[in-house]
Description:
By secondary structure, the chain is mostly helical. The chain contains 6 helices and 2 strands.
Amino acid sequence: MADEKVESSGFKVVDRRPFTSEGERVPSQLERTQEPEARDQVREDTEPAAAQESEPTVPEDSARFATLVSYLSTTAMFQLGLLPGPGGEYISPDFVNCRRTIDLLEVLQEKTRGNLSAEEARLLDEVLYELRMSFIEVQKQRVSKRK
């Protein structure tokens, strides 16, 4: 696969994707122009000190997915008035925005179906179940207080 391609229209197309179609990492421009020993030195210098030490690592994609689900579920719980805000204050339930947040999680579930690990799929299922039940419970409490 050629990295650069000049077309007759005068535009220069540069492929900046980090991986090849086979899934192998493409070396950066700096790595391509250096000698092998220099490449190794650059890699060592650019890695954070924590990454150079041998510590258990969490798969990056999984951690990002769990963080996203956690963020959205915490937002929904705050919108239901079940969690305090940053200043420790509780708000009254905001059902419209909470429903939108739950809907976002449902869209995420639908669009990632078949592409999640078993653990990620279970996390999303459990979070959605808990949020739906909490939403219904808070609505019931709100209605019973009005009577």
